[in-house]
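Researcher: Go.
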Amino acid sequence: MNQHKYKNRILCLTAMTGFLLTGCASGQQPAPPTEPAPTPTQSEASESTEAQTPPTVSSTENDTANSTVPQTTPDLEQAQTTALNHAGLSAADVTITKAQQEIDDGQSVYEIEFVTADTKYEYEIDAKLGTVFKYSQEAISQTSGQAFPQSQISEEEAKTAALNYANLSPDQATCTKLELDYDDGVAEYEIEYIADGIEYDFKVNASNGEILEMEMDRR
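Model: Structure:
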């Protein structure tokens, strides 16, 4: 009797163990096969690289952005134009009697003087900024100056005559002085040029453009 009970227990345990093993096996799902990641195309890889790479600025662009554009200083002719515009006159309305660069109270200026039929104008133009520094005007009747001949050559003609005499071109030389004055009763232009480190001083007859005198001095 005891053997029979023992066998029954063995059979029951065997059955239960088989049932449990079968249930566990049926409850587990096999893992799906792992699919390989898609290989990006060449265009996609290029776009990804561009998105990750920050834009670069060339050294030339940096230099251009950081550099300061140099400002050009006015020359003698521009100073004359500034003075004439301030006076409300044109070059055809006046006779330039003086145009040269000087130092006034430690400041570099262009001294410009010109006359009309009844008025004398004197200007100082800032040589760095090109602005009017000082100016004055007075009636010709109040001055002791002499009348200039009506048939005189223009300042541009006098400058050209001086350059031609020295075999220089306008691109080679810088005019630093132009003044119309009288010397022994003769109206003449006093003109100075700088070219290749040499200072040229001219005296040009204001009536016919003849070169009365020329001096050269290496600076």
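Model: The first strand starts at residue 95 and ends at 104.
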